[in-house]
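Q: Is it fine to ask for two folds in a single conversation?
A: Yes, each is treated on its own. Send the first.
Q: Here.
A: Result:
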Amino acid sequence: MRWRIVCAGKPKLDYARRGIDFYVERLRFSARVETLAVKTGPRLPEALQKAGEGWFRIVLDERGEMLRSLELARRISAWELRGVSRAALIVGPAEGLPPAVRGSADWSWSLSPLTLQHELALLVALEQIYRAYTIKQGSSYHRE
């Protein structure tokens, strides 16, 4: 599967930027991954919508569905079986995603009932996507 990671603005926190790069690099052995930082400002909703056009849209949102790691791996496998070949993970700014972007999502994903800083949420989501692929491959990375 091909992944497009769309985030509002470039990550400013050094640890988040390094972690994001780390998991994008690790994922390259399992999937094609590209990152796209969308400029924040008044045109952000349109830019986020456009960045996900033609892709299976996944939004990170506190109101979304929470899954265990094994369930996420199964979900990704199910999408692939359905013919989904391109998924866009859309992460909004600190204020959250605009309603129009949330409403256009194919799936809304919540990482936790906690509110997470958006760059940290992106890092956690990438780690979970990486973990899902290691589960699918039978790697020892995930322990349960």
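Q: Second one now.
A: Result:
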Amino acid sequence: MLYWLTALSDGGDFFNLFRYITFRAGGAFLTALVFGFIFGLPLINVLRRTQGKGQPIRSDGPEGHFVKAGTPTMGGLLIVGALLTSTLLWARLDNPFIWMVLFVTMSFALIGFADDYAKVRKQTSAGVSGKLRLAIGLLVAGLAGYWAAQYHPPELASQLALPIFKDTLINLGILFVPFSIIVIVGAANAVNLTDGLDGLAIMPVMIAAGTFGVISYAVGRTDFTEYLDVHYVPDTGELLIFAAGLIGGGLGFLWYNAPPAAVFMGDTGSLALGGALGAIAVATKHEIVLAIVGGLFVVEALSVIIQVLYFKRTGKRVFLMAPIHHHYEKKGWAEPQIVIRFWIISLILAMIGLATLKVR
């Protein structure tokens, strides 16, 4: 919205700064961060009063989690609120990819909110029907995939770009939308599975958002794409502002989620943030790079899939408990030890993902 202040500029004054994506990204980051600091504690107090016993703790979970009983959930409202406010304030609102990513983020936030609300109200770990959540998520992701394809350049529409191989495109045709669904819904649920320890999910999400902010900015500029030999996708540079708002909102939330957490993100936050990462990957044509950058989320999701399939087939377990961060808890690792080591892994994977921009 503030971009329109450039209409007051004569080309050499303060208002001209609003033309620059990097300046507005900085503004979005600070806006989201301040939003989190201002509204964090009041929101937590409201959630405590309204939720009573807080998020139900699974009876079959690690023993150390029972001390967290009474901690409120739906803290994702703080992140989503900061992200929405900063994006609407600093991004160009005539950009189709901004609205596509916001649509996915807010839709998955609503799905997660409904699930969190049902869990708190019923005081059970079973919320909204999994089939219903999946069905709505598939619909949202399908609309987003179709939306993105309409604004991709004709030579890239329905194409799958491969990292490292600069001239290789795989024409998915009508399968592009189903592929987009897999990316967005898969990312949303993978982040949701990762969100099991205080601070475990939010930092890798911020690292991935920062990485895709850089990717968005790079593929949205012709000079960068020519130098890096990556495909040019017009208008995606504006997604750097969204990513900056996500990082700012994430830091504001982490202030209260650092062990011991004053509030849990809940499905409200994890589904929204995972869906957002998937949507950015689809918009920038870097879906496969998301699997690298978000490799931690992939491993968390795979650990659950492997555990379920192997148990159904043999009656035995591969991991002491899934997702895999609970496996390490059962092995005796302290929660901060798991969290910080997983953060380090996420940062390494992000660097590898960024390297694919130049390794062509």
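Q: Anything structural to flag on that second result?
A: Two points. The chain has one domain: 20-355. The radius of gyration is 20 Å.
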